[in-house]
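user: can you give me the structure for this one chain? tokens are fine.
assistant: on it. calling the predictor now.
[tool input]
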Amino acid sequence: MWDGEGGSLNETIENQLENQKDSSSWNPRGRFLVVLTESSNETGHLLAANLCSVLWQVARIFNVVDLIPNQFAYFPRHALNTIKISADGFNLYTWFPYKLGVCGEVQDVVPVDEWVFESNVSFLRDTNFYPVKVPKDLMGFLIKLGTVAVDPYVIMTENVTQKNGSTAYKVTGISVEIIKYVSEWLNLTYVFLPPSGNIEPDS
């Protein structure tokens, strides 16, 4: 939760994440709700994108909903009388890590719902705040795989210097075959990093 006091938004979120990491219940794959109780000069959309980016960069959190006040003038709220906010409701945002052809960085956020404070406090659309975010088809996204060269699980068979000067590593073994199968099933593209273990390629 951020109320505009005690440091910038990014600093507050980073500090809270570092404190949470020491908890025995810490789970970056869990469901997160980030609440802002103070309006900002930035739009809710930009604030949400920044929040999601910080959570992803610091702790690889993607299953998050940002609850951000809209920009209307303040008036008392009976339903939330313990929180001072400058809005007549909240907008809810989230992001999806496998959209727009980019993986591993926050490109955009999407509105989930709107929480309005009228005669009855309610959500306009009553949607699922935490939908499935990892699709069955990962659209060929690239992953880099680190391995430990242990026969018969991972065996380096060849390393090839490519035109751009980089080295491509070809490996085989029981674990590698499992990776190939899973990658085909999920539609992933993968490259192998150099195996550790100082094992030379088979001749």
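assistant: here you go. The two ends are 59 Å apart (CA to CA). Confidence is low (pLDDT under 50) at residues 72-86, 198-203.
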